[in-house]
Design brief:
two-stranded antiparallel ribbon, seven-stranded mixed beta sheet, alpha/beta, 10 helices, 9 strands, 324 residues
Amino acid sequence: PDLGLNHASSLGENAATISGINVSIEHIQTHNHDVTSELETKSDFDPLMCQSQLRYLSRSKSRKPLLLASYPGSGNTWTRHLIQSGSRILTGSVYNDRSIIQEFPAEGKRDTTVIVTKTHFPCAGCWNIKSGGPVSEAQSGDLKTASGSVYIIRSPFDAILAEFKRKVTGLNHTGDVTDTSIYKQQFWNDFVKFRVNSWINHVQFYLNHHVNGNIWRDKRGRKVLLLYFEHLKSPRTVRKMLKNMFEHIFQHHDLVPPSAISAQDAVTCSLYNQTGSYKRSSRGHINPYTEEQRQQVCSQLMSKRNTWHEQVWGSCDGRLQWER
């Protein structure tokens, strides 16, 4: 099936306004291209639009929460930043990570007052959950009241490596490995073996049934908008991807101007502060996957449906995306 992002949707009606808090906007550079300078040369660009107060949505009984879902290491926190800085509406999470509360003041909220709710559900073995009893939604990351999701997928080689770095740096969202000898330890080998199965199960939960274009249904029958992390990173595709994403999200919440920012303006504000504070930087490019690991991972991926997306990631050979 066509796994690209060709979806376009009309926006709905009626938005609520509740003031939030002010956040500063930083000038950024991305891919050696000064996005801020480009935007400021446009006659219709107003920087104040991208510095307006963050706000909550009004609580609604008719609307359901919308998930921002991904496997750990796939860029969820960064995409959450893009959504929040672009829409000027606060984003929530099924978790309660106090280390990011400054940038995400609605961390821990999981209702209709936030524009999306972050989750990594279902992620078997991703956290140490005691067995022997029922697992709460807070522990599993499940949010059964949600009616759909924006699903971020990233090449499993890159996602698993990013999550490993977070683990070994004390759950640091931007940490990197300084001692590369750790990749020669059994811990890294075991991590790769276990996580590839966990990643496959995660993807197959959300990409259970292809509808058309970038729209899927998950195993519960809920609507899923598929986003590739690599498309959000690419200067060639980022604007189109952001526009599709904001149109989908705004339609879900029936958000239209003048009560809310337009999808196109949301794209502009996302690009105005594209990097954010939670994008992991690498001190030196290294691919730690051994030839045996590459073969094992590719063998598992190629035996399952909807897992390896060659048209986006290239051939399955163990290379990371920066190597392509």
